[in-house]
Task: inverse folding
């Protein structure tokens, strides 16, 4: 048998290594772009708080740490509970998994003295990144082994390569690999692997290890408690009464082992409860505060198809996984039901979360941990393609190749090049930029408006000017400018409003960036409104002229208003030389 899948595994490792060490080595970055930045710093904060600062309750080290390393703009990793102590926002599971890397880095810093032993200096960033990369390599290795239980070498080879090169798993495995999704991916692969082993050789050690893996997944993300259903339904043909009876008898025969596994799940889960009791005084604390689930109206369409964070918009190749449920039913019915049931439950939970775009995610990053299950449907599709005539096969490979190119493009530009802005994308910006490498800066206006004029202008006519001898200053205390209004009801195609802007400090949080707003009004009723965020185009201690083009609405209007809003930012911005003109295409 030719080792197609092994060669594919090696190629996957090379691709992951390139993005980890060459394209965007996060361990070399600073502030929020560092490995231990944003959410990762929240998962990780248990470790320095416990082992370095000995202050898991008050977190009095927080201000100095935020000031020195800036993993987040402020201390978002924990919140003050009713008893006055700080409770970590994120579950403890990731901190447990980071522990080997943390201890190695801490020991190195203590022995050599070359770097501060403070939990965030370079050795900690490097070791967390390398360890997370190892977890990714392990996950793909285990995935290959379990796929080979059901599919041939060629099918597994194509499936592995498509997963790594064509999905958002690449980003989570090679760049943002210290996030939960990479670790959970590997945990799920291990759960499936040991489930298969348990049904072949039902050893007590195997089932107890399954309990530990499910428990660790649960305290990594509480919704991953659904992992416990995998050992019960995996490879169970629900269309066969005999298979159901056989599974029931098997579980009944090993009932005590299963009870032992359940106890292990509970014991591992109690680690989180003990932490909450120690710090907050209560056994159960809901640490996500105002965030929760919308159980009755999950965001199915948004999570699948929105340009902001739609799974299939940014990971197009997984359409084949959804199609793969059909051949999986006909050719691999033994695993069809387990894969389908788990996938349905998982997506319902993931898509019901209020923050359905999951922060600055490239598509639905939360889907990554479900890939060890969903990939069986993808493999089912690939297996079906190999049964088809050659023109169908080559047509499929070409489409997959395009998906791979786009995934490489998204992965690269999501971190550099100012082309992909996770969590901010719009339909207009997506189609103006996707797959291109020569993107003008002006295109970023489409992140806020759906109109961008890029052609030549005719019949340019000035219609308004202000702030030629004075300026408008917006800051923490002055959030809104005066509303500049002028009468106009002409027949031009476009309106262009421009001004000179200068800042001292750049606002990096896009939802706080100063907004440049234009409204067409009819008797004080707004008939059309467009805006752009100015700080996308401004840099510190530099003045720049910026403009916003708006197509004249078809609806009747009699005046136009211009306004600037600082959007709760405390960064200062100066505005002068405000001008408006109309023009034709």
Result:
């Amino acid at each position: 048998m030719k080792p197609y899948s092994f060669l594919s595994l090696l190629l996957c490792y090379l691709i992951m290594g390139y993005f980890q060490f060459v394209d965007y080595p996060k361990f070399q970055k600073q502030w929020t772009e560092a490995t231990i930045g944003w959410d990762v710093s929240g998962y990780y904060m248990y470790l320095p708080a416990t082992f370095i600062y000995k202050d898991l309750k008050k977190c009095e080290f927080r201000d100095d740490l935020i000031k020195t390393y800036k993993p987040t703009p402020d201390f978002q990793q924990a919140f003050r509970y009713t008893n006055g102590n700080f409770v970590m926002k994120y579950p403890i599971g990731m901190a447990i998994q980071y522990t080997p890397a943390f201890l190695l880095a801490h020991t190195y810093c203590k022995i050599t003295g070359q770097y501060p032993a403070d939990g965030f200096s370079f050795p900690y960033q490097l070791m967390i990144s390398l360890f997370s990369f190892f977890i990714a390599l392990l996950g793909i290795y285990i995935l290959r082994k379990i796929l080979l239980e059901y599919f041939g070498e060629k099918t597994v080879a194509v499936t592995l390569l498509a997963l790594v090169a064509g999905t958002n798993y690449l980003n989570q495995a090679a760049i943002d690999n210290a996030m939960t999704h990479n670790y959970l991916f590997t945990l799920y692969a291990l759960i499936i692997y040991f489930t298969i082993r348990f049904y072949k050789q039902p050893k007590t050690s195997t089932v107890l290890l399954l309990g530990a893996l499910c428990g660790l997944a649960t305290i990594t993300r509480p919704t991953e408690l659904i992992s416990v259903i995998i050992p019960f339904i995996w490879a169970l043909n629900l269309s066969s009464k005999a298979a159901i009876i056989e599974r029931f008898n098997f579980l009944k025969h090993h009932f005590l082992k299963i009870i032992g596994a359940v106890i292990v799940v509970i014991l591992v889960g109690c680690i989180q409860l003990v932490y909450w009791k120690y710090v907050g005084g209560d056994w159960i604390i809901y640490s996500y505060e105002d965030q929760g689930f919308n159980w009755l109206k999950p965001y199915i369409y948004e999570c699948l198809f929105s340009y902001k964070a739609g799974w299939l918009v940014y990971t197009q190749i997984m359409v084949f996984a959804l199609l793969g449920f059909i051949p999986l039913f006909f050719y691999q019915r033994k695993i069809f039901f387990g894969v389908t049931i788990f996938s349905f439950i998982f997506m319902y939970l993931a898509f019901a979360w209020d923050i359905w775009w999951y922060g600055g995610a490239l598509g639905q990053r939360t889907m990554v941990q479900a890939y060890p299950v969903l990939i069986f449907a993808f493999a089912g599709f690939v297996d079906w393609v190999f049964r088809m005539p050659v023109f169908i096969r080559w047509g499929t490979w070409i489409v997959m190749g395009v998906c791979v190119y786009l995934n490489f493009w998204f992965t690269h530009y999501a971190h550099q090049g100012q082309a992909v802005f996770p969590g901010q994308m719009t339909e207009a910006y997506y189609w103006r930029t996707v797959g291109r490498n020569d993107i003008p800066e002006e295109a970023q206006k489409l992140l806020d408006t759906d109109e961008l004029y890029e052609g030549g202008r005719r019949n340019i006519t000035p219609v308004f000017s202000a702030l030629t001898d004075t300026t408008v200053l917006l800051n923490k205390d002055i959030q809104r400018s005066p509303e500049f209004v002028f009468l106009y009801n002409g027949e031009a195609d476009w309106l262009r409003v421009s001004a000179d802007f200068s800042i001292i400090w750049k606002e990096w949080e896009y939802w706080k960036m100063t907004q440049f707003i234009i409204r067409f009004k009819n008797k004080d009723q707004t008939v059309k409104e467009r805006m752009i965020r100015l700080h996308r185009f401004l840099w510190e201690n530099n003045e720049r002229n910026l403009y916003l083009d708006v197509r004249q609405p078809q609806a009747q209007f009699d005046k136009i208003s211009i306004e600037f809003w600082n959007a709760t930012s405390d960064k200062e911005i100066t505005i002068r030389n405000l001008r408006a003109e109309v023009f034709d295409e």
Notes: Residues 448-584 form a domain with the Jelly Rolls fold (CATH 2.60.120.260). The first strand starts at residue 78 and ends at 80. The first helix runs from residue 4 to 23. The CA atoms of residues 414 and 440 lie 16 Å apart.
